[in-house]
Amino acid sequence: MATFYNQIPSASALFSLYTTFSAIKMLFRTILNEVVPLYIRNYITVKFAILFSTYFQTSFTFIIEQRWDSMENQTFRAAEIYLPTRLAGLSTGKLLVGSNDLKNPAAEPKLALPVNTKIIDEFEGIHLEWILDSIETQNFPYEKQYFHLTCKKQFREKIMTDYFKHLTKSAEKIMRNREKLLIYTYNREQSVWKAAIFEHHTTFETLAIEPQLKTTMIDDLDSFSKGKDFFKSVGRAWKRGYLLYGPPGTGKSSMVAAIANYMQYNIYDLQMQSVRDDADLRNILTSTKNRSILLIEDIDCGADSTSRRKTKKEENDQLQKQKQKQDIGVSLSGLLNFVDGLWSSCGEERIIIFTTNHKEKLDQALLRPGRMDVHILMGYCTPFVLKNLVTMYLKIDDHVLFDPIEKLVLEVSVTPAEVTQQLMASKNADIALKGLLEYLENKRFKKKEDTKVEEDGETEDAVTKEAET
Fold it and tell me: What PANTHER family does the database record attribute to this sequence (predicted)?
């Protein structure tokens, strides 16, 4: 027994051996760095890594980043939608929960993807492991996220050919049946879209418009949603442009909400005043997601979209003045390229909706088909719209005041918003309709007074001209 212990090296001998080995290692590394060029060392390192991966590593990992070629990575988006349905396969004891239901704070919280947590999925007997990872970027506190998808090396081709198709189709199905929509607004300072829950409950069933217009809109939207192969066959971007025009209060915003709820599309609400220049406008377009509505309200007030096209000298003069103000803005050519140029094809299944109170002010180049495919007049209240509003707000189908109110609606210009305001004054049908009748009578009286003033003014001008002659 004593002989065995005598054969064990002492601690000092072991330390001396370790020191000698470390010195030799450092010497060898120094010689290697001095003699062997860097590119050769890197080449050897890569070859060793490949050799190790080929013969010793049994798994393969796909990395799926948020952006791909300066656009949103649709594979990342599909995983982001699909994986919350697989949260039962969490391999760790943590879960991300939250709620944004302002109307029901006590509602059961929703589940979301935790960062750095393994999620297990299975596809045709293949075991798959997903991990959502993130790194901080210069745009603090925003993070760059990406997925790791790991499988056995022998299933790599199967995952590429079949699983990713399954992922995309599953995500598309989930999107078409999503419970809540989002509305985004563009933050100019941070150059990002910020989202909020879209809870506008207007649908085509509750929208007070003429039956023919409702049928036309639904048929056109259905045709667009099924038109992927058609748009591809004719070489056009899969998008649709709508122009909603008419006086304020005629239901343009409600029409947008009805379209969004019918198509189950999120809305990107863009204020043209928040866009710096044409380049910024292109970045904004490419950062929106597919299956969405891009809404640009009051287009005649934002970009250089009105009147005639300017000469080159006028454009240069205006550009110089805008540069001095450091607020270049969007040019008409930039807007046209945004709507129907090469950049408009960066994405698919998108609806672009413009609204304006003054269609006549818009440049004709902006109005042609391909840019604004469908022009929809949101006009003043009609007898049919009136009855719909009364039925909706007062829950009645007939009343003794219907006839005089309908006659006044045909005589004066009143918007659905004005009618709605009067109907909401009281839940009592008699009081509400009497108030509406008085409101319309006052509008008729004012209209007659305005007409009389105009006629008197024209008469005075005529007399003045005769006297001067």
Answer: BCS1 AAA-TYPE ATPASE
